Amino acid sequence: MEESQSHQQGSGNEARGFGKQQTPSPYIIKAVASGLQLEDRAGVGGSSSSNTAKDTKPRRQSLSQRLGLQSLKIIGKDTGGDKGKTTSPVEYATTSSSPQSTVSLGKTEEIEEVGANKEEKDDVQRQASSLPKEHRVAEEEGGGGAAAAAAGDNDSGDDSQRQQKRPGSAKQRGVKVECVEMVGEDMYIGTSDGRIVHYTVATAELETNGAPERFEVSSVDLNLGGKKVEQMIAFPALSKLVVLCGSTVVFYRLPDLRPVPANVIPAIKGVSCIAYDERINNSKNNSNSNTRGAILCVARMRGVYIYRLTGELRLEQEIPMEHSVASICQYGGYVCLADTETYRILDLAKIRAAPGSDSGHLVLMPTQQPTTDPHTGRIIRPPRPRTLVVGPNEFMFLTSSGDRDTLGVIVTAMGEALRGTLQFSSYPKSITYDEPYVIAVFGGGQIEVFDTRMPDQTLVQTLFDEEDVAAGRPRRICTVSGFYLSTNVSRPEVLEDARDEREEAGEAAPISAADVFGSQKHWRREILGDNNPKAAENRAGRALSRFASTRIVVVAQDTAIYALAHPPQLVRVDALLLGEGRVEEAVDMVERAMAADPDSDPNLSDEAAYCFQVAGAVCFRNLLLDDALRYFKRGSLDPRALIHLFPDLVSYLGTLLVPLSRIPLAGGLRRALDDIGDAPQLAHTGAALIAGSDNEDGDIDRLRKTLAADVLELAQRYLEHCRTQMLGSSDHQMPFAPDSLPVIDTALVRLYAENEQDAKLRALVGATDNAVVSDLACKFLMDTGHYYHCSLLYKARTAGTKDDGSGSSARTKILDIWHRLLAGEWEDRRFGGFAEYLAYVRSASGDQHELLDEYRWLVDHGCIDASLQLLAMLSDESVASIDADHAIQATEQATETVINNTDALRTLVERLVSAAHPRAAHYTTYLVKAYVRQIRDYYADGAPDDDAATVLERAAIAERDSFACAQASDLALTFRTYLRSMRESNEGTRLRVLLIDTLLCANSQAVEGSYDARQTLDYVADVGAADLLMLERAILLVVLGQIDSAVDLLVNKLGDYAEAELLLLPPLPSILSAAGQPDISSGASSSSFSLFHLCPATTPSAASSRPDNVRKLLAIYLELGHSGHDEIAVRLVSRLLDRHRDLLTDSPSSVLASLPAHWPYSVAEPFALHSLRRAARRERESAVVRSLRESLTFDAKTELAAETRAAGAILLDYSQTCATCKKLLGSSAFVFEPDTEQVKHISCT
To answer: Most buried of the four, 29, 89, 169, 556, by CB within 10 Å?
Structure first.
C-alpha cells in the first residue's frame, strides 16, 4: 500500500513514503533544507560561515497584502516615483518585508502565505472572488507574470528585468530558490536575484525528523543585473560549475565557487538554454570526465554550439539554426531540441560531414504555437516546449493541444517511436528523467512518477497530494550530481546487541568497539559501515546499499528543498525478510539491484551479504534447508555463528569457540539467529508441525530423525564451503576470522565421524594443512571407536617434520594404536592392516633400531608375512643380529596356511643367506627338509605311518602316469615343466615346484649358502618320500656327483628322458625353451640352471663328454626297447639320432648294426642318409684334395727343372745319392736346388 508523500517544514520534517509496504513506492521524500534565508546579508562572504539551520517564521501579512490589492494599485498607476525604478538585491533584502510564497501556473493564480491555516485560505479565496473584474484581470497580468517568472516556464531575461520593476513582484516578496546543484555534502543554490549560495549539508537519515544540519559556506553574486539563475550543471571530476543566468553562461570552480578567469574560460553570452552530453555521467564518482572532459551543448541566438570542457573550453562544432532554440538535450552524437517552430534531432556526425546542408536534421513535429482567445482577444502563449534524454540515444518531447491533453513522446535518435507514449493530466511545469522513471511536476503542485519500462508507461506513484500542496506547492524539479541519504542500520546497533548479550551472560565488562574492530580487519565484511558522508560516498558504486543515492531534488515553495530518492534497497529487503518473511521477493530485489548496477564491486558488498545471511536464517527457521544453505553461502555467514545453533558442537568445541556475543553480527541477523535458537530442537518441533496430528507416532519419529540429519548435513556442507573458501584465499583476503579455520576443521571431524563419512574424514584428518585441534578431535575419535582416524591425525602432524625427534612422540602414538589394531585388541575396519603399517614404517622411519623393534614385535605376535616384509628393510648387519632360531620357530608355528608357511620360511632363510648369516647353510638345509616334510604330509593326507608308504606310492604312480600321458605328445617335455604347469591344481604340486627351485638354485655355483645334499637325500628316504620325490632325488644325486645313478633314476624310474638329456648333454635351445620359466620367488631364476650345472667341478667338460653321453643314452634307449617298450624306444632313438647325428658319424655302421632288425627303417633312415651323404662328401673332398696336390707338385717340379737348367753344368759321379730318398741317382732324372745346393730325384721333390 502506497503511503502519502507529504511536505514538511521546520523541525517537523519527516521522510514520508517510507516503511514496510507490500508494493514499495519508487521514491521517498526527505527534507534537505527549509526556511532558507537567501537575502544577501552583510557578513556572509566567501570564507565566512554561519549556522542557518534554524528556521525563521515569516511575518504575517495583512488581508490586503494576501489579496494582492497593494500590487493592483501600483500596477494601475500610470505615473509615480517608483515606476521604472530598479531595486538592487541588497536593498530589497534589507527593506522588503514580503513573505515567502509559492506560485503555480494553474488556471487560477494564488498567492499564499507560508503557514496560513485552512480557514485563512478559505477567507482569502472568498474575498478574492468578490473583487471587481478589472482587479482580477490586473492580478492575472501582474501577479500571474510574476508566477510564471518564478516557475521558469516561459520567461526570458527581459521578463526578469521587467519583474524587478513591477510592484508586487516576486522580488519584493523575497528571494527564491530557482535551481539547485548538489555534489555530495555540498549544496549550491541559484537564487532569483542572481546569486549562488553554497551550503554544506550533513547526511540525511531517513528515520529522523527534520532536515539535516547545514552551514552556509559562501554566497557569490554573479553580477548579471540581478537576473535569476536559470540552470546549474556541476562536473565534480573537473571541479567546474556551469551556470546559466541572464542569457549568459559563466564558469566557477568547485567547491569554493571561485570564478574561472576569463582568459582561461570566457563567459558565453546570448544563450537561451544549455545541456550536457548525458552519455558521460557527471556524478562525483565518474572518472571518465576527468580525462576526456565533458561535452557542453549551448543554444545561442540561432545556432547550436558544441564545446568540450576540460581545463579550458574548446569549441568543437557550430550548427546554424533558423529559429531560436527553447529546449535542448544531448546524448552522444545526437542532439534533441525544440525551437519556435519544430522538434528535431541533430546528427552531429552527419552535419560535420556535410556542413551547410540539411543532412543530419531530422524534423519530428511542430511545436505548439501561440493562439488568440476568441472571447478576450488576448494572445495565449503556449507553455515552453520540453525535451529530455530518456535512455541511450532515446529522447522524449512534450506535445499538447491544451492544458488537459499532453503527451510525452519517446523516440530513438532515428525518430522511431519504439516505446509507449506517456499521457499527462496537464502540461508539466517541470520534468526530468531518472532511469527508468519520468518525474513531472504539474501546476497544481502534484508530482507524478511514470515507469517507462512498462508497455503502458504506467503511473506508479503520485507525490504531494492535496493536503501537501496546501502546505507548500512544488515549483521545480532538478537533476543534481549526487546526494546521499542513509538509514540507522549501523555499527552502534551491532555493538549494542553484542553488549546486551555479553552483559546477560554475566561477563564483567561490556564489549567495546576496540574489542570488535581493533585488529580484526576481516570483520568489516560482516558489519555495516558508519553513517557518514564519506562512507556513503565510498559505497556509491555498490548495487545494494543502506544509502539512498539521489540525483533528483524538488524545489517547493520559495525557500524549501527536498530530495526525491529511491528507498534504500537494504531497508526494503530487511523489512521483507524480518518483518514479513518474504524471502523470495527480498532475494529477487537484491539480485535485480546488483545486476542493474554496472559499477558494482565484483566482491559481494556488506549490505548484500547481510541480506543473504538474514534470508538464510529465515529459511533455516522455516526448515527450508537447501535454500538456507544457498543463501548462507552467498552471504558468507560467519561459520562460528552457525555452529552456535548446535549445542552439542558448542559443548564439544569448548573454549575453542568464542561466545556468540563476541562474534560481530548485524543486529537483524543476530535477532534472526536468536529466533532459531537450538537447531536440533527446531527440527524436533518442526517435525510435529509438519506431520500434523493425524500421523502416527512412528511416522513423526522417523520425520524427526530425517530432519535432524538434514540439519546436521546443512551445517556440514556449509562448513565444508567455508573451509574451501579460506584455504583458497590469501592471508589478507580471508573471508572469515583466521581463528575460524580450527573451529571449522575440528567441528567437521565430529560431523564426519557421527555420520560415518569415512572418506571425507580420512581426507580431512590426513591432510597436512588441516587445522584440527588434536586434543579435542582425538578424544572424541577414541571415545567413538575411530582409532584409525585418530592415528591419521597424528600422522598428519608428523608429515614434513625433520629428523630431529620432533615427530617421535606422534609416531609412538601412531604405532601404539596400530599395534593394538593389528593384535586384535581394538577393531576398526577402516585400518589398512599390515600393508599400511609397513608403508608407514618404511616411509616414516629410517632408524635400524626402530625397525628391529618393529620386526621383533611382529615376530612375537605371529605376524610372519609382515615381519618378512620388514625383514627386507633391515640392513645385513641388522639381519645378522636377529635371533634366527626364534624367528624360524615363530614362522613354523604361525597360524597361516601351509603354503604361506613354506613361503615365509623360504623367504626368511633366503634373507638369512643373503645377509651372510653365520648359520646360512644350516638354515637352507632346514628349509629343504621343511619342504620335504610338508610335501610328504600333504600327499599322505593324514594316513597312519603304516599306510603312508602305500598312499605315497599310489600318488607317485598317478603322477608318473599323468606325466607319461603329457609326454606322449611331446618328448621334449621335462618333469619340471610338467609340475610347473600343474602348480595351481593342488598345493602338493606347488610345494614340489618350490622345492625343486630351491634345490636347483641354492646349490648352484651362483648362489652361496648351499644345503647339505647328503643329509637331505637321507631325509627324503627317512620320511618315506623316495618314490614320490624321484626328480628331487636325481637332483641331489647330481649334486653328489652320481651322474649315472641320476640318469638311471630319471630314465628308468621317472621316465623323464628330456631331463636326462639336459643332464648328460649341454642344454640345447630347443630343450631349454621347452623347460619353461620357473618360479622366481627367491629372486633367482631356476630356468638358467640345468642339472648339468649342479655337477661337481670334477665332472668332465660338456665338450669332451658329449659323444660318449650320446652313446650312453643310445644304449639306454635300446635297452628300453629290449625291455618291452619298443614304441617309446623307437621315438627316443629316432629323436636322438636325428638331434645328435653329428656326434655318431665316427662309426655309423656300428650304430645301425645295434638297432633291432624288427624296427622300421624310418627310424634309421635319416641317420643313414646323413651318414652316406657325409661319406660321399668326404670322398669327393679327398679327390679334390689329391688333384690339387698333384697340380701343385707338378708346378714345383717344373720350376726346379728350370732353375737346374739355369744353374749350368752340374758335375755328378755314380756315387751321388738323392738328398731326399738317399738312393743313387743313377740315370734317373734329377733337379738341383740352388738354395740348398742339393740334388734330388725329380720325383722326390
So the answer is: 556
| Helical packing angle, 833-844 and 864-871, nearest 10° | 20
CA distance 174 to 877: 113
Other C-beta atoms closer than 10 Å to the C-beta of 537 total 18
pTM score, whole prediction: 0.51
CA proximity to 992, closest of 937, 1060, 948, 1037 = 937
User: Tell me: the pLDDT tens digits for 1019-1078?
Assistant: 888 888 888 888 888 888 888 888 888 888 888 888 887 787 777 775 544 333 333 333
Nearest to 736, CA basis, from 526, 1022, 422: 526
Task: Please determine, for residue 149, whether its predicted confidence score (pLDDT) is greater than 60.
Answer: no
For residue 1138, CA distances in Å to 973, 1142, 1170 come to 17, 9, 9
Neighbour tally for 77: CB within 10 Å: 11
CA atoms within 13 A on the CB side of 29: 29
Task: In whole angstroms, give the CA distance from residue 813 to residue 801.
Answer: 16
Question: In angstroms, rounded to a whole number, what is the distance separating the alpha carbons of residues 645 and 431?
Answer: 54
Cell triple for 628? 538456507
175: left (phi over 0), alpha (psi -120 to 50) or beta: beta
| Residue length of the chain | 1245
DSSP 3-state of 434: strand
- C-alpha cell of 220? 557569490
SS3 643: helix
Position of cell 570542457? 309
Q: Are 821 and 787 a contacting pair, CB within 8 Å? A: yes
SS3 1144: helix
pLDDT tops 80 at residue 60 = no
Question: What grid cell was written down for 250?
Answer: 559563466
CA distances to 150, 539, 546, 548, 884 from 851, rounded to whole Å, are: 102, 65, 68, 73, 16
Q: How many CB atoms lie within 10 A of CB 271?
A: 22
Cβ atoms of residues 771 and 653 within 8 Å: no
DSSP secondary structure code for residue 1053 in this structure: I
Crossing angle of helices 1161-1207 and 1126-1139, rounded to 10°: 20
Q: pLDDT of 8-21, one tens digit each?
A: 333 333 333 333 33
For the record, the C-alpha cell of 857 comes out as 614385535
Nearest-angstrom CA–CA distance, 447 and 5: 10
Q: What is the pLDDT of residues 263-309, one digit of tens each?
A: 999 999 999 999 999 887 655 545 445 567 899 999 998 899 999 99
Residue from 743, 741, 822, 828 nearest 777 by CA = 743
C-beta of residue 531 within 8 angstroms of C-beta of residue 203? yes
Dihedrals φ, ψ of 297, to 5°? -110, 120
Whether the Cβ atoms of residue 447 and residue 459 lie closer than 8 Å to each other: no
Question: In sequence order, what DSSP letters do the residues of 34-89 get, joined into one string?
Answer: -S---S--TT--SS--EE--S--PPPPPPHHHHHTHHHHHHHH-SS-TTTT----H
Q: How many CB atoms lie within 10 A of CB 949?
A: 16
DSSP annotation string for 647-661:
HHHHHHHGGGSPPGG
Asked if 1052 and 1097 count as a contact pair (C-beta separation under 8 A), the reply is: no
Own/partner pairs, 733-738, CB within 8 angstroms, 24+ separation: 734/522, 735/522, 735/525, 735/636, 736/522, 736/636, 736/638, 736/639, 736/640, 737/520, 737/522, 737/523, 737/638, 737/640, 738/522
Q: Helix, strand or coil for residue 253? A: strand
How many Cβ atoms sit within 10 Å of the Cβ of residue 938? 19
- Residues ≥6 apart with Cβ < 8 Å to 52: 36, 37, 199, 214, 215, 216
For the CA atoms of 520, 521, 525, 530, what is the dihedral angle to 10 degrees? 100
